[in-house]
Structures are given as C-alpha cells and as structure tokens.
C-alpha cells in the first residue's frame, strides 16, 4: 500500500510539473503571439503610409503630364 501511495504521489508531482511547464509555455506563446500581431500591425501601417506617398507622387506626375500635354 505504501508503495502504491508513493508511486501515485510521484506521478502527481510529475503531472504538477508538466502542468506548470505547459502553463509557462502557454504564457510564452501568448506573449510571442502578441509581439507578432504588433509587428504585423506596424508593417501594415508602414505599407499604408508608403502607398499613400506613392499615390501622391503618381497624382502629381499625372497632373504634370496633363499640363505638359496641354501645352503642346
């Protein structure tokens, strides 16, 4: 009986440690996921700003072309 109790107590301790490790891994994964989302959001923001600048340049060039064509 004592042997069974000791074995069960050891198994419980192993399971406790495994649960603690899983929780720790889960927390780490959650933090890393948040960093990925933050980085993706920053990248999207930068892409949007770049596209807006490019759009402005294209519109400006189109206006210049219209003026040049009108002068001919």
UniProtKB/TrEMBL annotation:
Q: Could you tell me which species this protein originates from? A: Hucho hucho (huchen)
Which InterPro entries does the record associate with it?
PMF1-bd
**Record protein name field:** Uncharacterized protein
Q: Name one GO biological process term.
A: spermatogenesis
């Amino acid at each position: 009986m004592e042997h069974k109790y000791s074995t069960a107590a050891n198994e419980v301790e192993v399971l406790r440690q495994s649960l603690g490790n899983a929780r720790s891994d889960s927390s780490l994964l959650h933090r890393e996921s948040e960093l990925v989302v933050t980085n993706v959001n920053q990248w999207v923001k930068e892409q949007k700003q770049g596209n807006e600048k490019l759009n402005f340049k294209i519109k400006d060039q189109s206006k210049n072309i219209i003026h040049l064509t009108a002068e001919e």
